[in-house]
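Entry 12.
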Amino acid sequence: MRWLAEELRRRRVPVQYPQLPAPAAPMPDQWRDVALAELEMLAEGDGERVVIAHSLGTVLWRHLEAAGTAPRVDRVLLVAPPGMTPPPPGLEAWAFAEQAAPAWRSPATMLAREVDPYRPEPLGQVADGWALPGIVLPGTGHLNPDDGHGPWEAVLDWALTGDARWRLGEGARSLDA
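Predicted 3D structure (tokens):
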């Protein structure tokens, strides 16, 4: 994500890249406040408004959607959503296993590996529970630098144009919502 933000800025694309307090120890109220402040700054600009959230950030975005506080944006990519059964410590208040999926205000898609150490469920199960389409990439990992992921041109292209080239070839497969 850091590379993506830097690359977009290099191309003179306005970027908000919120740094959530205590990312390893979720603080839902503080996370919500930071996200909403950053999204408000994004709303001040011209052009497309695109959200890319990773891991627990995907849970934050779902919470904002469910609470009706997520602003309308042009598109959303939810990368490597974690499993929420049981919810990660600190996010029990955001547990939504029994809640219906929110009415998504903006078009959203999930993107994740077949196997993710933070998601015991298959992505299809998570995508169905969130009522979203998903794209499954082959292999194992959390789509972060720790599993060898670095600069990712396909996500840059998606951020700039909405073109999801990762759907083509290389073993990626699409899930229906």
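Annotation: Residues 28-43 form the longest helix (16 residues). The chain has a mean pLDDT of 84.
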